[in-house]
Design brief:
Layout: H1 8-23, H2 33-36, H3 40-52, H4 56-63, H5 69-75, H6 80-99, E1 104-108, H7 115-118, E2 127-132, H8 134-146, E3 155-159, H9 167-172, E4 183-186, H10 195-208, E5 214-220, H11 223-226, H12 234-244, H13 257-264, E6 266-272, H14 274-281, E7 295-302, E8 308-309, E9 315-316
Parallel strand pairs: 1-2, 1-4, 2-3, 4-5
Antiparallel strand pairs: 5-7, 6-7, 8-9
The structure holds S-adenosylmethionine (SAM).
S-adenosylmethionine (SAM) binds at residues 1, 7, 9-10, 13, 109-111, 113, 132-133, 136, 160-163, 187-189, 192.
Amino acid sequence: MIESSRSRTALATSLMRALHSRRDPSPLLDDPWGDRLVPESERDRFGQRILARMDSGARAAALRAPGSILDDFLLTNVAYAGVVIRSRYTEDGLREATNRGTLQYVLIGAGLDSFALRRPSFSRALEIFEIDHPATQAFKIQRIKDCGISLPASVHFVSADLANEDLATALARSSFRRDEPAFFSWLGVAVYLTREANLATLRAVASVGAAGSELVFTYVDQIEFVSGGSRSLGDANAKAVAMMGEPYVSGFDPKEIASDLMHVGLELIEDLDGTKMSERYGRTGANALQPPVCLHIARARVQSDQPVVGRMGRAKRNPSAPRY
Ligand SMILES: C[S@@+](CC[C@H](N)C(=O)[O-])C[C@H]1O[C@@H](n2cnc3c(N)ncnc32)[C@H](O)[C@@H]1O
């Protein structure tokens, strides 16, 4: 990501969720905010960039229906299906966690995720912590203001460059409670950071999350990096990255992910690749959502030997549980 500017991929994923909500026949999400959070001027800029990369024939055809240039680009983007499914998967997990009494939701690299604006009924009591790169977060806060929205005091913005600052240090600036379980999401971020930064973030989740806390995160099979991206993201991804100016940096090996997590204090609960995601959420359905097989979404739990019951009957870390 360019240090001083908001993440273009965050704008694109916001638009993808909105597009899915209004265009796909059987939406997994209802996210009209995805459009509102992206100003008209940004959409125009996107459209111009898309046109600039077309050959003259494609450009002439696209200009016959200028209103659909951006939607067509997003719908055919290799990331589209995964962006939609990862949000639904996360919010399904979050709903289950709130049923168990979790009252804190931390979005790491929140981007323009509109959860705090949509506030599904199951989440009314949640304290929401949005952590993001300062440039993207400032853009989002300004945009929310420009839309005339004031968010409740239960939404907390914490700006942090996770390439240079530890998640735990960032969260310590907020009212986040380490002695209460939390649900963490980390969607579409790990791929932009180094393996070291990613392991630091995972370790920090394990250290700040009380027993019973969970994390949902996406990663790309590192074979993509070994093979130069030709396996299933291929040229499409290279083009998308060129458009956004945010190159992929690292992945994980799915065969090693359980042990990578265990070594930082997390227990793998589930790991779905693109094929499994679409089996669960889309391929045979009306939406025909098929993420690339190398895209993964994983769910993990903060390890603890013997959870003890804490305040309000919720699980709390056993202080004698081993840490990694
Ligand atoms: C592809 S967007 C995903 C946003 C959101 N999670 C979603 O699913 O739409 C990547 C996000 O990672 C954030 N990000 C990238 N590098 C970061 C860094 N070094 N520190 C903090 N956030 C970062 C960007 O600001 C952006 O919001």
